[in-house]
Structures are given as C-alpha cells and as structure tokens.
Amino acid sequence: MIIAFCLYKYFPYGGLQRDFMRIAQTVAARGHRVLVLTQQWQGERPEDFEIIIVPVKDRTNHGKNASYYQWVNRYLEQNPVDRVVGFNKMPGLDVYYAADVCYAEKVDREKGFFYKLTSRYRHYATFERATFLKGSGTELLMLTANQVADFKKHYNTEDSRFHILPPGIYPDRKYSYQIADSRRVYRERNNISEQQLLLLQVGSDFKRKGVERSLRALSTLPEVLRQRVLFLVVGQDKPARYEKLACQLGIADRVRFFSGRDDIAQLMAAADLLLHPAYQEAAGIVLLEAIVAGLPVLVTEVCGYAHYVNSARCGEVLPEPFQQESLNKMLRKALESEALRKEWASNARYYADTEDLYSLAEKAADIILDCKHG
C-alpha cells in the first residue's frame, strides 16, 4: 500500500517528530511505500521514504498551514493513496496521531472572548473540529486518557474511534544498552567531574516546557550546592531570553544551552536528575526516556506521562496549581540526598524492565494498516 504521512515540519529533536519517524519506519519495514508531505525537513532523509516538500507562502503559521492543506488535498486527488495519516490536525485524515492537547479546551482555559475573533483561532478550531467531530470517521491515536476526555467534552467524539497507545521508547534508550561504566565515560567525554551535579532538561519550546521555572529553582539553591551544579538545556528554540534570565539570577556560569544534540541517551546516563516543570504537555516522551535510562525525574502534574513517574516511584510529580516554592524545595532535597537519587534510579530501572514502554510504533502501524480509507 501507499501510506501518506502529513506533518507540517520535521526536525530530529521534537517528540512528535520522533514518534512520526518510528511509526513511518515501522510501516515501511512491513513492505509498504511511505510518502511524506511536509513544509520543512531537517536532518537525514531515510532512503525508504519518498519526501515531498510542500510549497507554502504566507506570513503567518496558520496561513502556511492552510496553504499546505490545500496543496496536499489537490496532490492526493491527482495521486491517490491507500491511507492518509496526519500528525497535525486537518480535514480528510484516515488516521490522526494526537501528540497535542485539545485546542478548544486550551482556548477555554487560557484565552478571552476576543481571541475567538481572530483568523488564527478560526483556522485551528476548524481543523480540530474536522478531525474530532462526531461522524468525521478519522481514527484517533491517543497518548493519554486525559486527552480523550477533553476531546469528547467538546466534540462528542465516538468512543470507538479512540485508540490509546502504549508508550514508544526506542529500546536503545534503555539503561541496559549503555556501555559499561557509562556514567563515568560520558562525563569524562563532556568534561564533567564526578563531584558535579548534572541537571538535564530536554524539549523544544522552552516557554511551554518551563525552562524559566527550572532556572529560578536553580538560583535558590544554597551557594555551596549551586556551585556543584551544571544545568544543560537541550531543545530547538531561541535561548537568548533564558540566557538573559540566567544572568539576572546570577547563574549564567551554571547553565549551558544547546539547540539539539544526538547524544541525549548518553547525557541521561551521565546526569543526576531530569527537570520537566512544563506548563503544558500532552504526553512528554522525554519522561519515559529518562525512566528507561534510570534517570530520576522532577515533573509537573500537567504532563500526560507524569503518572509514569509516580508509578515507577522514580522522582516527584509537582501538583497543580504549580508553586515555584515546591519545585525549589524538591530540587534542593533531591540534590542534597544521593541516597534518594539512587533509590529513584533503581526504581526506574526496575520499571523499565517490567513494563511495556516500547510498542507504540507497532500498535500504531497495526491501526493505520487495518483502518478504512476515505
């Protein structure tokens, strides 16, 4: 079969993009032709993918997305395929992979009346409605039950269309795949001493992922403890605002920013703690990558995958509404207690060995190949 995968942008370090890559590769490995329609592609191009860069011209993101949809719709009318799979919401999908939160719910919670008069709102609301409205027929690949509840609330979507997937961690992210003595080796490779406390935050969109919260928590540590900390922030975003904040907080020498790195698994093996105090996160694949790496986690309850941290007993989940003081105290507690971090790390490894955290791509491919087209 010919399977068309639609996503606005591909870059190697996004959670949605990594899930897309695994699912598309799984479909290709089963002998099907993978056609990718995207506005941008960054990084290596798999040889078994046919990648088409869709030309779009507009000043706004929602304008570009509307133009993208119109072009794709015309292309697929002239070049029929067997399945259309979307990783962004749009009309006409056979399958939608829901890596994002419910837009209607987000608007109700965060925006005022006048926002609903904007062209941006009309675009995203229309595309979401076309995907989830009762009777639309699109099969919905979901990451958490919380997502399902929000979409049903706004669109009365049929239960039968929702498919909650297990997580999908690359097996090579697991601690048991690392080289012997990996912590020491990777610390030496990155000029990090054994006495330093390595904090890690991974994720694009620094504002949404709560990088500011992490910086403020770091700045409250006692001076002796703070001088031992090195905080690495990895993600595709513009760091200037956060570098300025780090200077204002007096911690610029403790923080390093990276737009993207290919050695995240190695950094997790070397790190002491993952921070993820996000404002909003439909799932948070990085949380599970930390768990299977044996890396303790501090995370906000709002993240869809935060419950795995509780289940694994490998860190702390900060309740909503978020309190900066709670994060400050928990960070200090975790950094001052090596015994606590070792207990969390041991619990994480046990959970990685005993739970299914790996089969998302296989289950998603099953649904894509079995569903009806059109």
TrEMBL record:
Domain Glycosyl transferase family: 184-349
CDD domains (alphabetical): GT4_PimA-like (cd03801)
Highest taxon in the source lineage: Bacteria
Record-annotated membrane-spanning stretches: none
Domain Glycosyltransferase subfamily 4-like N-terminal residue range list: 13-173
Protein name (Swiss-Prot/TrEMBL): Glycosyltransferase family 1 protein
Source taxonomy: Bacteria, Pseudomonadati, Pseudomonadota, Gammaproteobacteria, Enterobacterales
